[in-house]
Amino acid sequence: MAKHDPDLSLLFHALSDPTRRAILTRLAGGAAPVGELAEPTGLRLPTVMRHLAVLEEAGLITSAKDGRIRTCAIVPEAMAPVRNWLDEQRQIWEARLDRLDALVMTLMEDKEK
């Protein structure tokens, strides 16, 4: 049965956009002000702010305002649910492939007899 974890859905939604993934990649190198994050995207500041809001809602980043400058930082441990889910899926599919391999080998042995 499928697991419907709303937090996991938020994380995958946040990760589904290439602009948001690029922002996360940049933040992996250290905290940055919003203006610096917006510059390479070519997007207007309100659009970048919406992307940052999605990332923050998913818990992937935090932001703090100091005067007129808002700085964002990545929250690496927020990726743990995604990593755990992907590990579970990998184990499921590896087990299925192992069973398929065993079936094929059995069929080949039966055919040789």
Mean pLDDT: 93
Low-confidence stretches: none
What share of residues are in beta strands? Answer: 5-15%
CATH H level, superfamily name:
Winged helix-like DNA-binding domain superfamily/Winged helix DNA-binding domain
User: Architecture, according to CATH?
Assistant: Orthogonal Bundle
Radius of gyration: 21 Å
Give the domain tally. 1
Largest sheet, in brief, is:
3 strands, antiparallel
Number of helices: 5
CATH class: Mainly Alpha
Distance between the termini: 40 Å
Q: Per the principal axes of the C-alpha atoms, what is the gross shape?
A: elongated
Number-wise, the strands total 3
User: What is the spatial order of strands in the main beta sheet?
Assistant: 1-3-2
Give, in order, the helices and strands. HHEHHEEH
CATH topology: Arc Repressor Mutant, subunit A
Helix/strand-derived category reads alpha+beta
**Residues in helices, as a percent range:** 55-70%
Would you write up a description of this structure?
Helices cover 63% and strands 12% of the residues. It contains 5 helices and 3 strands; from the N terminus they run H-H-E-H-H-E-E-H. The chain has helices at 6-15, 18-27, 34-38, 45-57, 80-112, and strands spanning 32-33, 61-66, 69-74. The longest helix is centred in the C-terminal third of the chain and has 33 residues, at 80-112. GO terms for molecular function: DNA-binding transcription factor activity. Residues 1-94 form the HTH arsR-type domain.
